[in-house]
Amino acid sequence: MSVNIIGLSREVYKGLPTTLCAGCGHNSITNHLIKALYDYGAPPHLLAKMSGIGCSSKTPAYFVEQAHGFNGVHGRMPSAATGAKLANRELLVLGISGDGDTASIGLGQYAHMIRRNVDCVYLIENNGVYGLTKGQFSATAEVGSTLKNGTPNEFPTIDVCGLAIELGGTFVARSFSGDGKQLVPLLQAAFSHRGTSIIDIISPCVTFNDHVGSHMSYAYVKDHEVTLNAPDFIRPREEITVDYEPGTTQSIELEDGSRVLLRKVDRDYDATSRIGALSLIHESRASGEFVTGLLYVDTGVPDLCEREKLTATPLRDLKEDDLRISREDWAALFQA
Ligand code: SF4
Questions:
Q1: Which of ligand 1's atoms lies nearest the C-alpha of 23?
Q2: In this structure, are residues 198 and 122 in contact, taking their beta carbons and an 8 Å threshold?
Q3: Which fold has domain 10-315?
Q4: Given 37, 159, 222, 310, which residue has the most CB atoms within 10 angstroms?
């Protein structure tokens, strides 16, 4: 039986059978997550799967059954994820949300998690509609896209990637549920990044938003996807064997010594330029393109645990004696 670098089989990374609609993009994301976590060698007992409400937020049930899971109230996943990380900074915190959960009721929570740079991987399974309540537009729907009954969306879209970069996000990517080749290494780079890693994944809702007129149908995304860079994830001490033409690859070292290699596909692009990333997002929106890949990364920003000067020992492991000043020290303090 084949096993990963920590000796676990792929079966360990699976979860319960999905209850989502057949063909839903979220099911593909689950499969990519299973592969990414298996290949990365994530220990299940150190994985915290967090979610809110929506079709997307059921996803944590479908992978790594032995990991911790917390299904919070609508839009409040970031608070629960922040608490889990502060209590045990050794956890890999993986938050799974949707466009409704993130860009409407949870927008304030989204904003503050990013500006605090909480060490959490935050996935947005984005389909532009509220699937769980029968397909009303969400705030990420494009202006001019239509519902199944022909009703057009007249409100401006909220671009969760542009917003994340504006708020000081340190790892911002966009991908497509149908592109595992791109998404799996992006996920692994996000697991290694120290800080909030946002991945906005266009994930078509086959039941309510896969028709002509939708800007998030499989057909529309396939026709309008522009791949910015093709990532490869390289672990620390792993030899870089991929043969790239000089000048066509950007190599970014992550905090744990691993690297993400970004092979330039469509245009010359620097993923460390905040202004460049914001310009690209605006330009691609104006031309109706979905640009996918790693949009922006900054590995030099402290995360919330560092800013708060938390002890290296996770808070949940501290005993009363570690926290309480001794009688002798107390007396010495008052004599000083
Ligand atoms: Fe997926 Fe849409 Fe079905 Fe929800 S309603 S499970 S988003 S296809």
A1: 8
A2: yes
A3: Rossmann fold (3.40.50)
A4: 37
